[in-house]
Design brief:
Blueprint: H1 5-17, H2 23-28, H3 35-56, E1 61-62, E2 65-66, H4 67-79, H5 85-88, H6 91-96, H7 106-114, H8 116-134, H9 144-171, H10 175-188, H11 201-209, H12 211-224, H13 232-262
Helix pairs in contact: 3-4, 4-8, 4-12, 9-12, 9-13, 12-13
């Protein structure tokens, strides 16, 4: 009897992956690079913009802080919301293909995979702390209220957007490419990697009112409290929109779930 070891390992990987407590063991098991590979997939999204914007465009500082501090403080919103989009958005599709035989709730799989964002977030926090120590920058005024609101809002915004695309990927597999393009545009047209100083009015307004920009600036304000143009009411408004967006997507999914999985 011939055994397809690729399918066997694939099934084993995703069945184990949804159990959050075993995620690290699954990722590094039977791999040559082991912890080196795990470190690479976590640090890679941060290392690329650091190299591009410091070595190629030669940005040494931004917003009165070293660029690495600027990037890491703004990247907090992306790391906790959309850093695992490519994996999480496919979780419902994988469930439909019967890779998960020990659960009847596809959202359970989605939840476990999406929580990997928290791993990226804590790594981001650690890198930011190390960078602050390196540059001898001290956080004198820390707003736990704004930081928590930005964190929770970012988390639910990313969750809603990922679940939205995950539903359609079940029906149209190629929809995942549109999702990746959307996430890329949201990231590049935000204040996370740079401060836009161009003259294009549309791009300026899109960058300014991009949800990722609002949450990124909120994180920066909560840490340094030096943004003169920070608008707390705008953060409240976007937080409300994020929660509403998530619950609407959740209600829609639960109503259409039998239609989706019966096709």
């Amino acid at each position: 009897m011939k055994i397809n070891y690729i399918d066997k390992y694939f099934n084993f990987f995703f069945i184990k992956l949804y159990k959050f407590k075993t995620i690290f063991k699954v990722l590094i098991k039977n791999t040559v690079a082991s912890y080196l590979w795990l470190s690479f997939i976590i640090l890679f999204p941060l290392l690329i913009p650091l190299f591009v914007f410091t070595q190629i465009t030669e940005i040494n500082d931004a917003d009165n802080y070293p660029y690495v501090i600027f990037l890491l403080s703004g990247y907090l919103t992306f790391s906790v919301s959309l850093s695992t989009f490519n994996y999480t958005s496919r979780s419902l599709y994988i469930f439909r293909k019967k890779y998960f035989l020990n659960t009847n709730n596809p959202l359970e799989i989605f939840e476990y995979v999406y929580r990997i964002n928290l791993v990226y977030f804590f790594v981001n926090i650690l890198l930011l702390y190390i960078s602050l120590k390196f540059y001898n920058i001290f956080i004198l005024d820390f707003s736990i209220k704004i930081f928590s609101l930005a964190l929770i809002s970012s988390y639910f915004f990313g969750k809603a957007l990922t679940l939205f695309f995950a539903m359609f990927i079940v029906l149209f597999r190629d929809f995942r490419f549109l999702g990746r393009i959307t996430v890329g545009i949201l990231y590049l047209c935000s204040s996370i990697p740079y401060v836009y100083k161009g003259e294009n009015y549309f791009l300026m307004m899109f960058t300014k009112y991009n949800p990722l920009s609002i949450f990124a600036e909120s994180f920066r304000y909560s840490l340094f409290l030096n943004h003169n143009d920070f608008n707390l009411n705008l953060l409240y408004f976007y937080s409300l929109l994020s929660f509403t967006f998530y619950f609407l997507i959740l209600i829609f999914f639960k109503k259409k779930i039998y239609l989706i999985y019966s096709i």
